[in-house]
Amino acid sequence: MKSNEVPGTKGLVLKEALLWEKGRKGRKGFSLPRQDVPHCNIGEELQRAQTEIPDLSEIDVVRHYTRLSQWNFGVDTGMYPLGSCTMKYNPKVNEAMAALSGFSEAHPLLPPSLSQGALRLMYDLQNMLAEITGLDAVTLQPAAGAHGELTGMLLMHAYLESKGERRTKILIPDTAHGTNPASAALCGFRPVVIRSGEDGIIGPDVVADLMDEQTAGIMVTNPNTLGLFEANIRDIADIIHSNGGQVYCDGANMNAIMGIGDIGAMGVDILHLNLHKTFSTPHGGGGPGSGPVCVRGHLERFLPIPRIVENNGSFELSEDYPESIGRLHAFYGNFGVMIKAYCYILTMGAEGLKRASELAVLNANYIRESLKEVLHLPYDRPCMHECVFSDKLQRPYKVSTLDMAKRLIDYGYHPPTIYFPLVVNGAIMIEPTETESREEIDGFIESLKAIVKEAEQDPQLLYDAPHNTKVVRLDEVRAARKPCLAG
Ligand SMILES: *Cc1c(COP(=O)(O)O)cnc(C)c1O
Q1: Is 407 in the pocket of ligand 1 (CB under 6 A)?
Q2: What pLDDT score was predicted for residue 329?
């Protein structure tokens, strides 16, 4: 492959010292006019603190941080096919809207009479998310998917308690994201594993066998983390409901079914969305995020407070919900993320959202078909927004998923999600999203094909990869435990 066909080339990767090493006594980032007031001793404390801060010029500081920023890889740098994360391009216009001073300088302690625009935006966004999901009521408070899951579990608990019931278990498929059992356990439920079938989805019979009077309900991800649609969801929901349970859906994979799948019609009672995956907030660095929770009507009275209520065209905050599970976030959640989601939904429109999901699914299936000759495909059937391969065909060459993922970095791509979901040994989980062009996706496919060839012909190349990066193959456990923070 010619070096200009893939984005990963060995460029000008600048080394960088610590600011303390770069500092030179007396260097300054500013010039002030000559002092014309009496000298004043600012105290020993402050002087000592000053000696610990390196003296630097403005250009030292600008170069330092610009260089550090260039060591980073993000969606704005290149394709980032991290499965289950929906690392799609986030239009900059949404950032610009969130930065408008009326929003960014709004203080959360302003009274509702001075915050009508912000309240209306949140109120309208709730309604939009209700419409997109086919559910009845929405809270925007949770700050992430996992936080939404916890909210959902608290809602389930509150609902059952209102009926005088105390159930202890919750059913969770073996393909679930690790946060699902963690959130359930945090809320005091004991997770019970549902084994998915040969076809990668859960069957109604298995659920019927596990469902009983001690089980609060089910937490199911749809589409699931194998990128497969849980086609039995309606039957499964009926089984859960007829035994007095509730159905929670992890909606982190909503990017596959916007405007296509009606979550309410699937029989789901509670769903969380990840605005930072599906609705235009960049993520990967730890936030801020937003994990709204959408519910059916019978759960509305338990939603977190304060809630936004409309009264003759004006908006107020109400805490008058005695059965509410209470507050889950300071003020109203991460407002900036909500603004971006609101703008994204308005600019895309209903048709645009549907088209985005269609293209996300098309792109994933294109990759699945293009790579299934060279990578083992454990579930060989049409997928949703992501496809999961394994390293089974490369094991005879002693090449693992990790080796191939590291080598992809040399070709200029962020590696896909690896070793997840756990039901696939050596999983390689690829989610291209709708925002990559045909050329970009082809480049990625050709790179993986070239890597598979290298695995057969020169596996050492893969064992030592990545080669083109500033830092080459690390002992990952040691790197996590004893991070080396110097450049
Ligand atoms: C990302 C993800 C989560 C967790 O969401 P966070 O916002 O990272 O807390 C939960 N479930 C699935 C399937 C996910 O992909």
Answers
A1: no
A2: 96
Residues 419, 299 share a domain:
no
Co-location of 186 and 279 in the same domain: yes
Consecutive H or E run containing 19: helix 19-22
Amino acid at 82: L
The pLDDT assigned to 487 comes to 54
Q: Is residue 10 part of a domain?
A: no
Cα–Cα distance list, 47 to 25, 34, 334, 376, 435 (Å): 14, 20, 39, 64, 53
**DSSP track, 392-447:** GGGGGGT--HHHHHHHHHHTT----EES-STTSTTEEEE---TTS-HHHHHHHHHH
CATH code assigned at 242: 3.40.640.10
Q: Write out the residue range of the structural domain in which residue 50 sits.
A: 19-34+41-71
To test the ligand 1 pocket, which listed residue (86, 141, 177, 221) has its Cβ within 8 A of the most ligand atoms?
Answer: 177
pLDDT: is 140 or 7 the higher one? 140
Gap from CA of 179 to ligand 1 centroid (Å): 7
- For residues 104 and 295, is the Cβ–Cβ distance under 8 A? no
Residue 84 counted as domain residue: no
Same domain, 145 and 257: yes
- Examine the domain organization and report whether 159 and 208 are in the same domain: yes
Check if 225 has its Cβ closer than 6 Å to any atom of ligand 1. yes
In angstroms, the CA 191 to CA 187 distance is: 11
Q: Is residue 141 within 8 Å of 305, Cβ to Cβ?
A: no
Shared domain for 47 and 185, answered yes or no, is: no
Q: For 51-104, what is each residue's pLDDT tens digit?
A: 678 999 999 999 999 998 888 888 998 999 999 999 999 999 999 999 999 999
Phi, psi of 138 (to 5 degrees): -140, 140
pTM of the model as a whole: 0.92
